[in-house]
Amino acid sequence: xxxxxxxxxxxxxxxxxxxxxxxxxxxxxxxxxxxxxxxxxxxxxxxxxxxxxxxxxxxxxxxxxxxxxxxxxxxxxxxxxxxxxxxxxxxxxxxxxxxxxxxxxxxxxxxxxxxxxxxxxxxxxxxxxxxxxxxxxxxxxxxxxxxxxxxxxxxxxxxxxxxxxxxxxxxxxxxxxxxxxxxxxxxxxxxxxxxxxxxxxxxxxxxxxxxxxxxxx
Length: 217
Description:
The protein is of the alpha+beta class. The chain has a domain at about 5-75 and about 95-120 and about 185-215: Electron Transport, Fmn-binding Protein, Chain A (Pnp Oxidase, Chain A, Roll), CATH 2.30.110. About 30% of the residues lie in helices and about 35% in strands. It has seven helices and nine strands, in the order αααββββαββαααβββ. Strands 1, 2, 3, 4, 5, 6, 7, 8 and 9 form a nine-stranded antiparallel β-sheet that branches. The longest helix is centred in the N-terminal third of the chain and has 14 residues, at about 30-45. It starts with a helix and ends with a strand.
């Protein structure tokens, strides 16, 4: 074993790289397994373990991807928030399907999620919006996300204008901002193993249940 492999094994010892991921360990509920892995990532030294890639596509199948933050997960799906006038939102209006990828390198773990999307109710978006720092709330009003910006100074001017506009009052939820929920139809768990003999388990939704399939690495 190389020194690099030895160090990697030490870092991931007890997190699956040695013991692996068996069907018995995984169970039959991928959301419960995701939460277990997510909790392990939060306990590790990973910065922003909630970071994920969100991939969307146009109606013609042209893909795009960006890094975002997971803001909630339960049996109904995975939640994130954005500007509804952004590029991703425009693509989701045309093609309401997306893929998410979580990668926790120090644990040698990856989770891939594929599913359909729907906007959250306004009340849920407002509740999250008002939990954000006030500066972030004003920033949401100031940014015309994904649109051309001639100068940085124009963005800073818009931020000042909205800061003054809402001085002394609660910042309201912008009508163009809110959340999405990804309802998963497929979730794949990847656990790194020695000699690149990794474990991959794919969960496919079958009605109210999930079918588990082991894949070659």
